[in-house]
TrEMBL record:
<dbReference type="GO" id="GO:0031119">
    <property type="term" value="P:tRNA pseudouridine synthesis"/>
</dbReference>
<keyword id="KW-0819">tRNA processing</keyword>
<feature type="domain" description="tRNA pseudouridine synthase II TruB subfamily 2 C-terminal">
    <location>
        <begin position="243"/>
        <end position="300"/>
    </location>
</feature>
<dbReference type="InterPro" id="IPR032819">
    <property type="entry name" value="TruB_C"/>
</dbReference>
<dbReference type="InterPro" id="IPR014780">
    <property type="entry name" value="tRNA_psdUridine_synth_TruB"/>
</dbReference>
<dbReference type="GO" id="GO:1990481">
    <property type="term" value="P:mRNA pseudouridine synthesis"/>
</dbReference>
<dbReference type="InterPro" id="IPR002501">
    <property type="entry name" value="PsdUridine_synth_N"/>
</dbReference>
<feature type="active site" description="Nucleophile">
    <location>
        <position position="45"/>
    </location>
</feature>
<comment type="function">
    <text>Responsible for synthesis of pseudouridine from uracil-55 in the psi GC loop of transfer RNAs.</text>
</comment>
<keyword id="KW-0413">Isomerase</keyword>
<dbReference type="Pfam" id="PF16198">
    <property type="entry name" value="TruB_C_2"/>
</dbReference>
<dbReference type="Pfam" id="PF09142">
    <property type="entry name" value="TruB_C"/>
</dbReference>
<feature type="domain" description="Pseudouridine synthase II N-terminal">
    <location>
        <begin position="31"/>
        <end position="187"/>
    </location>
</feature>
<dbReference type="InterPro" id="IPR020103">
    <property type="entry name" value="PsdUridine_synth_cat_dom_sf"/>
</dbReference>
<dbReference type="InterPro" id="IPR015225">
    <property type="entry name" value="tRNA_psdUridine_synth_fam2_C"/>
</dbReference>
<dbReference type="GO" id="GO:0003723">
    <property type="term" value="F:RNA binding"/>
</dbReference>
<dbReference type="Pfam" id="PF01509">
    <property type="entry name" value="TruB_N"/>
</dbReference>
Length: 302
């Protein structure tokens, strides 16, 4: 008699390789974990590497709530060249000598792109315009505008400025930067807007995501490592790391799992999803405060 394979519920923190789409990584993980129930929390462009958070089995319920978290990146911005895609994947559309751009001008440009800003996503992004993906409209040569969206850039720092010469002979500047930002922020749009503000154009040439919410690169594994040994962060541990924790006794745990809306302590009001744990540390649900009561947004107790 063959033993039935069971995949544990939880998160898998992947160090995504360059050249893979987020969907490619999900497809690969379905094979590794031997389950169809795999999803991701926030995409990474094919060129980018680093932290991609996947949910396996029941942990896929966490993903929509995890996406609204802060993210951290290391990247390289090339000043002096503009591309169709705002990154190195696209065709170069303009080249301008950037050798005269001063560090003071760079710092001023970065300051203008820090804080709460309005950002227009790249036209080859996955943003939907009237139900159609922006990149699909762009590939078909359609002329369209994407409305600016509010994003928060908590930190935008330059670690190094390197003079270089592009393949077409244009003197350019390569900036090694780190960015901490809200979900939905496009780093290649920051590169584009920084270059535009400096009058020389700009695009992103490298990007590595080092953190998504509480999940950092040091916890991430490559696909090859996961193929050898699947490492799944248990769903209770994942929820405890990402959300405020509310422990309830056995009586209230039973009421909650039977669909009763519990009175919610004031300390959790307005804090978004809260992870509710029953006795023995069992994850019961994610709840949100609604009129003083706990409204379940995802239930894990069976």
């Amino acid at each position: 008699m063959t033993q039935k394979h069971t995949t544990p519920d939880g998160l898998v923190i992947v160090d995504k390789p360059s050249g893979f789409t987020s969907h490619d990584v999900v497809a690969k993980m379905r094979g590794i974990a031997r389950t169809r129930r795999v999803g991701h929390a926030g995409t990474l462009d094919p060129m980018a590497t680093g932290v991609l958070v996947l949910g396996v089995e029941r942990a896929t319920k966490l993903l929509g709530h995890l996406a609204l978290t802060e993210k951290e990146y290391l990247g390289t911005i090339r000043l002096g060249q503009t591309t169709v895609t705002d990154d190195a994947e696209g065709e170069i559309t303009a080249s301008t000598d950037a050798s005269q751009v001063t560090r003071e001008a760079v710092d001023a440009g970065i300051a203008a792109l820090t804080g709460d800003i309005m950002q227009v996503p790249s036209k080859v992004s996955a943003i939907k315009i009237n139900g159609v993906r922006s990149y699909k409209r762009a590939r078909e040569g359609e002329d369209f505008d994407i409305p600016a969206r509010p994003v928060t850039v908590s930190s935008f720092s330059v670690y190094d400025v390197r003079e270089a010469v592009a393949e077409d002979g244009t003197p350019v500047l390569d900036l090694v930067v780190s960015v901490v930002c809200s979900s939905g922020t496009y780093i290649r749009a920051l590169a584009r807007d920084l270059g535009a503000g400096l009058g020389v154009g700009g695009h992103l040439t490298a990007l590595r995501r080092t953190r998504v919410g509480p999940y950092r690169l040091d916890a991430a594994k490559t696909l090859d490592e996961l193929q050898e040994k699947l490492r799944v962060m248990p769903i209770a541990e994942a929820a405890a790391a990402a959300f405020p924790r509310w422990d309830v006794d056995d009586r209230r745990a039973k009421l909650l799992t039977n669909g009763v809306r519990l009175e919610m302590p004031e300390e959790y009001a307005g804090r978004g999803p809260v992870a509710v744990f029953g006795p023995e540390g069992r994850l019961l649900a994610l709840v949100e405060e609604q009129r003083g009561k706990a409204k379940s947004v995802a239930v894990f107790a069976t």
